[in-house]
Amino acid sequence: MSAQPHEPTPQTDSDSDWPEHADGPQTLAELRAALAVISPDALTAFNARLDTATFGEDQAEIIAKARRTVAFANRAEAESSVASSPDETAGAQSAEDLWAHLDVRDSAS
Fold it and tell me: Do the Cβ atoms of 93 and 48 come closer than 8 Å?
């Protein structure tokens, strides 16, 4: 079934560096749980802002900011784990070594 003109088409070439709309917590319970992991103070501040916000755009903006907080915290964790992982290219040979080997091999023929 194809998408109707008013429906968005699936993106096959989306940028993995940017969070998609469906990434991250989808419910307030999931968002509160993720904020609690980051910081209990962040959860308390979120709940206070959400309780004082008016229904509609104010609440949507508060929820969007909290989702960005979670996304950036998760991204920082991922970047730090990648930075602390062992270098996979530590034992790899350089391109110059490869070309030198090929040159020696070709000149011997």
Answer: no
